[in-house]
């Protein structure tokens, strides 16, 4: 069977950039971002009272500056100004390489590069940024969306074996996760269209997902709940 080389146009037809922007907004709603539309904003540095604080605390002052700068970046994310997000957050990381909010800053850069339109999109760079989040911040609230966008970036970059690996990792950890259905669809697409990925491997991952779903729904109840 002739190898199917999916064009960028057809891959984007599966996930148009306006949909990527919509998914980015879903991430904004699902995580504690500091945007105006979010219910749980980024927690600011603790308030300093005259009775307990020294006259000058450089560490606290630094954190306050980082927080203020982060809010500026998050307003750009909320407005979907992706090119500005990429530039601003890269500068923010260079300025604060040990920032308390570094997981967010790196994630925003990856989001910007995958959501940018046309030639400005850089799927290869976005995968590196999302990999940094998943590798260095396994307990971050951004770990799950970073793992999802990592799989999506590989998919859009026509890297199907890496897509399968990222999808598998996400589905093992989050069988009922926010993005599980979308990644299951992409595994099915690869299984049907790309002979470079062993079908048994893809179906094996799908079987793992179904088994995990059955276990999670049956445990303690004796019957499956509707999703």
Gap between N and C termini: 37 Å
How many strands in all?
0
Report low-confidence residues grouped into runs of 5 or more: 1-13, 29-41, 47-51, 199-227
How large is the share of residues in beta strands?
Answer: under 5%
Our Rg estimate from Cα atoms comes to 20 Å
Structure description:
This protein has 227 residues and is mainly alpha-helical. The protein is 64% helix and 0% strand. It is built from 10 helices and no strands. It has helices spanning 8-14, 17-30, 58-78, 82-95, 102-115, 123-136, 143-156, 160-173, 180-193, 199-218. Helix 4 packs antiparallel against helix 5 (102-115) and helix 8 packs parallel to helix 10 (199-218). The longest helix has 21 residues, at 58-78. The radius of gyration is 20 Å and the shape is elongated. Mean pLDDT is 74; it is low at 1-13, 29-41, 47-51 and 199-227.
Structure at a glance:
This protein has 227 residues and is mainly alpha-helical. It has helices spanning 8-14, 17-30, 58-78, 82-95, 102-115, 123-136, 143-156, 160-173, 180-193, 199-218. The longest helix has 21 residues, at 58-78.
